[in-house]
Predict the 3D structure of the following.
Amino acid sequence: MKTKRKCILVVDDEPPIQRILRRNLNMSGYDVLIAEDGREAVEMVRMHQPDLILLDLWLPGEIDGLGVCRRVRQWTQTPIIVLSARKEEKQKVEALDLGADDYLTKPFSNEELLARVRACLRRAAGRTETESLQQPEILQTEDGYLSMNTVRRQVRVGDQEVKLTPTEFELLRQLMLHAGKVLTHRSLLRAVWGPEYGEEADYLRVYVRQLRLKVEVKPSQPRYILTEPGVGYVFQAQIRSILNAGTQWSEAVDTPSRGQVIGDDTGSGGYFASASSDEVSSLVSISLVETETS
């Protein structure tokens, strides 16, 4: 019995991009739908219920990419990957705050696109399986180096227990629960400190720096808590979760592995890396990472 192919909705008004994305996604085993403007995109999401949306921010008509995010998130959690130009930094952050799951900065390679698509679909599948269950009691990186007991509020780094302040603990919990996903400054501030926060990026940066000192092997070269400059943070590692003592490990996140980590300041920098120079998707520069993490 054949497995049903995943369906991806491409929302872009440029025919050359439509053709390239349709061809590459079809060749990789996905069914593809095309919408040329925001209104058509919203209608197609309602009618066809795609498994994932590739969304350009700049669309003709009354509803732009941000409007599509806003409307679609009113009734569905279908993964959304934003396709953005480097100059659209503000809109990109706003899209993530509105519920987009990830973004790709143009130009990007086909390998990078497919890796992001697979990661988003896997996260969505894991979310569907566990959304009716209770929060996990244990969160642990796949390598076993970092683990958190959310009930006892204990954190172990290597073979030692590390003392975190209540705020540091909650910040780490949010990052690990959403491992592999971009978390903007605003979303982290509101989740950890409350709804009255949202603009205090420098405040958040101080706590992230302190958290890295306690959980990273080399805080100046973080392996787990990575920054996406100007956007937010990502916990870059596969996470295993246990709902309660005695239950079996289950993978909560599967993020694409790469040759080199790029990024460091909201969530998605964790899986922005490339295997070769011609596959670089022009997301951020190494110099930005070195500046941010120093």
